[in-house]
């Protein structure tokens, strides 16, 4: 298969989403308020409403003068995410939402409550240009990059839902954000970094989450992994490896034809070295494709001795696809062999299977 390398850094082709408060740093918010004819101190007031109370309707911001509400609403709180469909699973502890963006593009987010933590999985692009053949999103190609506010807005919407007590388990807060929805986060690098800062800056500048609670995934854009290493953040890097050998990885993750397994692992180890954070290796187990015992051994050899953790993901097959989940005995043997190499491994809890767990699947259906 030929690599979609020309798409790796492709600029979005559609129009830009309107500017939103969450696109701006705190200095930029003050400047924007002044430009709207408002006092600069309103930036803090609005940020507290948005990041502290999850409000985005200025009609509910009762401390704003009536005359300012429409102006500020139009200038800084344009509607960016409209829910098209919401599905729940796992007894109401998993909530998946398909959002329509201002230009009609569809993305999705998933909120997952576990004992002791709540994880929000967000999309960073509408569609994806990486063309992984086992992934529904990859089949449709890239529509455009999301803006920082479109990314942060998914988390704010999840926070609002959770705070309202509508998610099984009662009111709570999001503790983890994983960039594992639609898209290749590092192909939308600057925006994703801005979004991470909005998520982790203290309230009211941002949502006040811990950087350690944020995971940024990548299929292996080596220059961007190296850039992230220098960013001074302590987010977890998740590398979607899916194969330990170039021959198979060239097929499963076409960007591998540009950056090979050895090169991408080198970049990952440099990230671990710099941040002291364990790199998460994502490996979708696909029956008779990448789940052979010899591949488990090869993976174990390549990872042994590094600051690493392997997440094995039982593949949730997309409709009409030839790719399917491994047999239970092959999965067990894969785990056993990795452990024999001293590599820590877990099999991911496949949340939301009954509502189309594979990334991008639900939005693909809506489209
Ligand atoms: S698996 Fe991830 S990187 Fe690959 S095409 Fe799908 S969304 Fe893109």
Are any ligands bound, and if so which? iron/sulfur cluster
Strand line-up in the sheet with most strands: 1-2-3-4-7-8-9-10-11-12
What is the CATH architecture assignment? Answer: Alpha-Beta Barrel
Reported by name, the CATH topology is TIM Barrel
Number of strands: 12
The top-level CATH class is Alpha Beta
What proportion of the residues is helical, as a percent range? 25-40%
- Uncertain spans: 1-13, 355-367
The CATH homologous superfamily is termed Aldolase class I
Return the domain count. Answer: 1
Basic shape: elongated
Largest sheet: 10 strands, mixed
Structural class category? alpha/beta
Helix segment count? Answer: 12
Mean pLDDT: 90
Strand residues, percent: 15-25%
Which labels suit this protein?
367 residues; alpha/beta; TIM Barrel; 10-stranded mixed sheet; two-stranded antiparallel sheet; 12 strands; 34% helix; elongated; disordered N terminus; disordered C terminus; binds iron/sulfur cluster
Overview of the structural elements:
It is found in: Cytoplasm. It is an enzyme of class 2 (transferase). Keywords: 4Fe-4S, Cytoplasm, Disulfide bond, Iron, Iron-sulfur, Metal-binding, Methyltransferase, rRNA processing, S-adenosyl-L-methionine, Transferase, tRNA processing. The chain has 367 residues and is of the alpha/beta class. The two termini are 26 Å apart. The strands form 2 sheets. It has a 10-stranded mixed β-sheet. Residues 1-13 and 355-367 have low confidence and may be disordered. The protein has helices at 26-35, 42-53, 66-76, 136-140, 148-163, 189-200, 222-229, 246-252, 261-275, 293-303, 328-340, 361-366, and strands at 82-89, 94-100, 106-114, 117-121, 125-127, 142-145, 176-179, 214-218, 236-240, 279-285, 308-314, 345-347. It is elongated and about 70 Å long. Helix 10 runs parallel beside helix 11. It has a single domain, classed as Alpha-Beta Barrel (TIM Barrel), CATH 3.20.20. Bound molecules: iron/sulfur cluster. Residues 128, 130-132, 135, 137-138, 182-184, 219, 359-360 line the site of iron/sulfur cluster (SF4).
